[in-house]
Amino acid sequence: MLSLFATLWQADSAFPNGGFAFSNGVEGLAELGERLDGEGLAGVLAMTLTHRWMGMDRIAVALAFAAGAEMDRLTEIDRRLDAATLPAPQRTGSRRNGLAFLTAHARIGTPSAAELKKQVERRHMSGHLPVMQGAVWRACGLDAQSALAASAYGVAAGMVSAAVRLGLVGAVEAQRCLGQTLPLLARLVDEAGPADALTCDDFESLTPMLDIATMRHASSDVRLFSN
Questions:
Q1: How far, in Å, are 129, 187, 227 from residue 60 at the CA level?
Q2: How far from each other are the two terminal CA atoms of the chain, in whole angstroms?
Q3: Residue 213: CB partners within 8 Å, gap ≥ 6?
Q4: What pLDDT score was predicted for residue 42?
Q5: Count of other CB atoms within 10 angstroms of residue 121
Q6: Euclidean distance between CA atoms 59 and 128, whole angstroms
Q7: How far apart are the C-alpha atoms of 167 and 133, rounded to whole Å?
Q8: How far apart are CA 69 and CA 115, in angstroms?
Q9: Given CB 3.0 to 4.6 Å as the disulfide criterion, which of 29, 64, 117, 171 pairs with 131?
């Protein structure tokens, strides 16, 4: 039961991890004229979760969770994720989110958060959000599968929230879209498999439209979100 409550705590959009400043490509897609009503947004969520989260965030969270407090191992996972994240706005956003996440947990007193924050501030690590989540959530009492669930839900909920704030969908339609995505989230987490079958060589992402939208958005004169 503790793992369930810890998961709800960490998946709560009110937790101060800095994610409110990032749309993860939603604003860029809107600028390109992509259809982002309820149906269109659901398609973007499915694409992001299946072809980016599954091959990037999911692996980073799982590997970092397994590494626990092994700082050298976490540094290597973080370095490899940084190298595998090609669009600069995605790298920057993940690093900023990761530092905000660590700052909140350090202030709360979560074990290992303060040391990880120190490593990031000293530039010994980039501090990518999925890596920091995997390491810190283990200390928070989440089990490995719950950590993956919280990560996947956080990505989906963050993109839906961005769509609402951009005026692309209404609040009710957004929740309908998020609810319809839950079976996909459950399937992907169930299919994730054990971390001992994964390595940093497994990092992969295939979301060209989202990547292009994110990179074009970085040079936009008027924007609400950082990416």
A1: 9, 18, 21
A2: 36
A3: 25, 28, 29, 31, 32, 34
A4: 93
A5: 13
A6: 13
A7: 30
A8: 10
A9: 64
- pTM greater than the 0.70 cutoff: yes
Residue from 183, 178, 186, 172 nearest 160 by CA: 178
CA 158 from centroid of its chain's CA atoms: 9
Tokens at 85, concatenated: 């994240």
What pLDDT, in 10s, does the model give residues 31-83? 878 888 888 999 999 999 999 999 999 999 999 999 988 999 999 999 999 99
Residue type, 172: V
At 157, list the tokens. Answer: 């909920």
What tokens appear for 37 in the block?
A: 């009503």
Structure tokens at 225: 């979100």
Residue whose pair of structure tokens reads 């600069």 in the numeric block: 88
